[in-house]
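re: that chain from earlier
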Amino acid sequence: CFKLVTETVQTFKPDIVGYSITTGFHKFFLALNQELKRKYKFISLFGGPHATFFPEIIHSPGVDIICRGEGEYPISDIVSKLEKGESINDISNLYVKSGDKICQNPLRKLEENLDSFPHPDRELFYNKFKSARDAKIKSIITIRGCPFFCSYCFNKSYNQIYKDLGKVIRIRSVDDVILEINEIRDNYPLGLVYFVTDTFVLNRDW
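^ sequence. v structure.
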């Protein structure tokens, strides 16, 4: 994996390298990032569950930015501001390392209209991994959030982080989900749709 990522960074020469990390695997990605940082110049961005619940990893060597919570708008803001030569130190959801200072910005409100997000650009991934492209099982996210407080799950803590920052449960429209399924079916092999959703039957009418 180190070799594959190193070769990709060497060829692509990215301005930003992003990692979505979960607890346990975070040590591997921190080590990978340090190895890449020794050879190449880029901004490192860590997001995902571990960065959300343990934002102190911003203090780790080689970590430039961490994103807490949902990252669509923060990442878009980073790219937009960098293109304009503007500071990224004040972007919501981000902890940004700026010299000896760490800028800790608050969370923004949750996006309630999930239909406003574009569908994933699967071609970016499938061009690289033909086996994923040819697999007949494709996954789709239909709902974000969960109202329950199961002891084994992160949702209770996640809901506390986002308290008073918008609706916890957000559901895509039926039409938008069907549209994405049809887009997949029209362009790739599809035998089974796997709904990656905490509570698929939360709204039975839906």
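The beta strands are 16-20, 43-47, 65-67, 94-98, 101-104, 137-140, 143-144, 170-171, 192-195.
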